[in-house]
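Appendix B, record 7
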Amino acid sequence: MTSAADSPDERGHGVRIGRVVGVPVYLAPSWFLIALVIVVIVAQPVLDTNPVYGLTRGVLQALLLLVSVLVHEAAHAVAAKSLGMPVVRIVANLWGGHTSFEALRPSPGRLAVVALAGPFANAVLAGLAVVGLLVTHGGLTANLLEGLLIINGALALFNVIPALPLDGGQALESVVWAATGDRTKGSVVAGWAGRVLAVAAVVWFIVLPLTRGERPGFSAIWAIVIASVIWTGATAAINRGKAVASLGRLTVGQVAVPADVVPPSTSIQAALDHHRAVVTTDARGIPNLLFGGLSDELPADAIRSAPLSSAVLRLPDGNVVEATPEQPVDAVVAAMQESGVGYVVLTAGGRVWGLATVDAVNKAATARN
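Structure tokens (predicted):
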């Protein structure tokens, strides 16, 4: 998907630094915080005796972390694209990074492959670091290779833990889905595994040291932060699984109304004359601008002449979902929950055909129940 560097949606993801396999890559503002922390930690032991060396090593280690995260996310993107899943963006942030993609016609096997591609790529980098250490004799290069080994070994091992929101949790979700034929059960099981992991982290890094009479250190702070992030992601997965389960076997067609795409220069009056929902495209050509109607106080001459683009609601890119009328509503509901916006533009083969709303979903679910 193409994107323009100055669009509001892009600014919301951070600084765009390039593309990987055609996918835009962003640095979120929070990434610079973790980079600063790494520079300080690495440089501090030698800051008094050799500050230039310490700062250089710290900056290079922060960049190695960025490269490792981007390799991890690029592996997700390559796997998703090879399986026919359009990839929207890659974002590096405080917690590592994430890859946004549209899971068209998802299956347990496909989602497991995409999830495990990231840790596998880090394991390969860790292996390359080991080979490099075997032929390197001390110095800054050896220190950087050791950092590369530790970073990628940790990323690989941590991410294969079978608990959401980690990659291993997505693999566990896929296994339960394949065994039961019900993806929602997989989400709930993997979500509870995530909650157990969050509690275990707090017990291991905080409760047990306290029982031994030790004072919690810096690791305890990180344990609390990481545990809270895991707990939040796991809880979201559980709630999402329960929400989708409550929808039964609703299809996209049951919660959608027909929609037309018109040029942004179309007049407001022409949009009002349409008997279908009306959307238009932004500067990038993405059909994420929904005609939102008018105030009764708007003058009649303005209605006739004002362009449609002056009366639209911008939807997040993730709320443009590729789905046919026969597909389950899972992807539609997931998009609404992730963005908090109750409208989803529906496309098939890249062409807009309908609009789904949260009210239509709730109404259909209530009627079915």
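Remarks on this record: Residues 1-104+114-160 form one domain. Confidence is low (pLDDT under 50) at residues 1-11.
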